[in-house]
Amino acid sequence: MTQSLSRKQRRALQSEAARAYGVDGAAGQTLHAAYQALARQDIRQASQLAHTVSQSHPANLHPWLILGMIALDRHEVEAAHAFLDRACKIAPGDARALAGLGKALVLQADVFAAVELFERAIEAGSDDLSMARLYADLMRRMERSAQAAAALAPMAARLQSAALQHMVAELCLDTEDYAGAGKAFEAAYAADPGGAEYRIGHVKARLFRHDFAGVETESAEMLVQDPALEELIGLRMAALRNLGRRDEALALLDAPFATPLYYKRALSTAANIHIDRGEMRAADLAFRNALHLTDEERIWTAKAYGTFRFSLGDFAGGLPYYAERQPPALRGRIPYENSAPEALAARQRLFLVGEQGIGDQLALMALLPLAPVAAGAQVRFVGDGRMPAALAGNTLGLAALAQEDFDPAAAGVAPQELIYVGDLARYLPERTAPLGGFLRADADRVAELRARYAEMAQGRPVVGLAWRSGDSLTGHHRSVALTDLVATLPEGALAVNLQYGDCGAEIAEAARARPDVGVFADDTVDQMADLAGFFAQIMALERIVSIDNTTAHAAGALGHPDTHVLVPAGAECMWYWGREGTPDPWYGNLKLHRQDAPQDWAPVLAGLRALWQ
């Protein structure tokens, strides 16, 4: 083909090839022809041309890259590894070589090395969507969804890829990062507003930012256009539930579902609606129907049903389902049987592996005294890096290790020595007394903070406040506005901020609403970096008012004598608090203030005002 070109055209082609492939003359044209052959799937010619250049210019990246891509396509694993490894050594920062070698390593079952190469390829500017999909899938299987989302988000933004943004959103959902998921779903919809999955993602984004009216309207319109979009039925039910239109939500169960998974999700929402209404038998039936309908997403439904039974005090009935909360891959590493009485009696060393957030970890580690651990056994908690300092001096005899510093293989840890801390729930039926007061805050730090707040207050009441809990729907129902909490305080009170995250705008709004109340954010305490300091801050305060978040559990574990916890009614009430009564059934030292009806904090806030009278 190049023979028909003029001399000038050949020179221009050679010059362009030299710039593109880093090699002059005919070799550059040969590489160009090899890439063209590869694009039209003429593998034989592409291979021959690339081989020719590999012999004449062995230090050039491109022939090895082409040969590696061909070997990958043919699943010639060893050859692909050799060619692409050569390419990476020639050009260590080339995104295509890194991605290709990573794929070869996957075929050789070296997954950990593969994902490291994929991350380097992404950082180097890769546009390989097949590599991104493979990377996301592997990271999900390795329980590293948050890391994968962080790595892929810049790539998705750079490529403006709807598919990749949607993938990032799903990764965020794995770790309950609803804000991140909503942002990615919105970006996917902006890139391709016509795609059905991206339109559904747009509805989800609205749900995550609590635009329930928008979810109801948009999902209804889309279902009229295409009734086959069954996933929208569950989303619409969730919106109607949050709008208080529960009868309308339950009526949607009569839709002719063709997909068992979407009917299962709708049944789970129906169960929550029945809990909101106090219809526990109906909720139980809905959960059981959802469980038996399909095994898809079973771990989520099983955990929800298990904790539902726990909330009713039926610990024995809930345990088999709660035990299913971990995916099979993780259960293969830490079986439920490791926590059985006979297994505990046989071990002189145990490692309790943390689950969920800090509040849940504190609540669950409190179960350790119920477990028949062998006399003299060494028990260590493995979790958040802030925990070792925060657990110092605890009365459970529990040492702590940071997750990032824990290498079971290097420490010679036998698989039987690992236990999920939540698996201690199997001993809940034997609980006869509250579990709180096992933590010890640093006495010197407590005294220092207490003196500082007393000096600031000058005899006025001092109260710690926490009012917000995450971006999830559950967190939304647990939260109250800071202005509403501050409105319950007596004149001139000093309110100490115990809320994590950026609270500046909320504090400023509260100050405008109640200029007589000082809301103080102590910059010497950062619970996100220093949990032990946060525990000292809690014990330095006379009174605490908190929604159900880490603050409440920390106060319970510390045995704080005057902590008031705002507990939502309905499905958002955590199982630790049971379903009724004001005494705290878990820690024993908290005072619970329950909603009479879901989403109605007015009576609770009135009760808080009465505390100061």
From TrEMBL:
Highest taxon listed in the record's lineage: Bacteria
Signal peptide extent: none
Keywords tagged on the record: TPR repeat
Ranges of the TPR repeats in the UniProt entry: 95-128
Transmembrane segments: none
Keyword Lipid metabolism: no
Name of this chain's protein: Tetratricopeptide repeat protein
